[in-house]
Amino acid sequence: MLDGISNAFTDVFKKISGKSTINEDNIKSAVSEIRVALLEADVNISVVRNFVKFVTEEAMGETVLRSVNPREQFIKLVHDKLVETLGSKSQDLKLKPTNTLSIIMLAGLQGSGKTTTVGKLAHLLKKKEDRKILLAACDTYRPAAIDQLERVGEMVGVPVFTGDKKNAIKIAKDAVGFAKVGGFDTLIIDTAGRLHIDTDMMEEVQTIARDVKPDEILFVADSMTGQTAATIAKEFDNYLGVTGIVLTKFDSDTRGGAAFSIKQILGKPLKFVGVSEKLDGLEVFHPERIASRILGMGDVVSLVEKAQEVYDEEEAKKLAKKIKRSEFTLQDFLEQMEQMDKVGSIESIMEMLPGGKEAMKNIDMSAFEKQKADLKKKRAIIQAMTMKERLDFRLVMGSRKRRIAKGAGVTVMAVDNLLKTFQKTRTMMKGMLKNKGKYGGMDLSPMLGRKF
Q1: Does the pLDDT at position 192 exceed 80?
Q2: Which distant-in-sequence residues (6+ apart) come within 8 Å of 200 by Cβ?
């Protein structure tokens, strides 16, 4: 995520840290490198000029040059300007109370990930806000667009209103009526994407916005398009009055041109970013956290939030009791591995730790890749078992082992190794509980759902 620009800033700060003092010459040199880094990241030229001008003027002031720690002052200066450029603070959706219908409309170019984003947004609002959601399929142009939204709705567990499947404006208006009668509090409208700014199609989506009066009009942009996303967003804003931006494929964006340009050019907040293809891969955009990650300061808050989403205290307490009674099963083992997977890859976790991205350069990631492949194999073996076998590992013998190995595409030895690992894990976890949650000097009580 934004690796290119992050590496460039890290290199700049490394050079400054090697200086005994900070003076006008090395500040000018650092600012020049920052300018190059932003331009290479495909940031809009006017945004680059504004950023560089501010940093130069502030860094040349007495606060930095005469500071006790001028290097840290300079980094703070750059950090604060990054936060301001990205939007200063996160922006919530403007939704009405749940006893009134709120309408969200999504618009954007074809291929930007709009329909998938509709599903991700529905998943987010359903999970975190407990809202009753209806999706409206108003893309009547792209073949199978309505079918795609219906599949997305099924995955999220929310209904999709399709109307006559022909007239987008009528579908949108009828969806509002259907949502009110059905007691829904949130309607998310998926509009037709376009390959370019098509006047007829823009007038259609403009009419939809005028007729249904959405509370939010979100422009969905592919972050890989760089500063071009800001130019296109401006066109949409002229027609619709966009209220916020969603950047998709943010996890794959190594440059950052779209994120840096769109807020400043459009003057509208970046509200969400897509960070994976999964339904839970939509996150609220926090400018300060992203700025910290770019500068190698990490993002511990986001890491803790992600862990809290996965961690269930009640379930952990039940698990602790099962471990203590030697009732920990292969099914429990599988669920624990799946929870670990939800937290994220080792790369994404390291990226959120202060100095983690820099430390990764000196780490042989092949060991982690091997471990990841090993966990995948273990999960496949357990998934090849019947539920009865998962609940009682002692049943896995002889012909059962051969059947499981064949189903998982592994050897019988691999099944044996899994069973040995599982039994060692059971013994170790039980020992940790008996030892009052202490293991290697570390208190594991919170992880095991028990206070000692």
Answers
A1: yes
A2: none
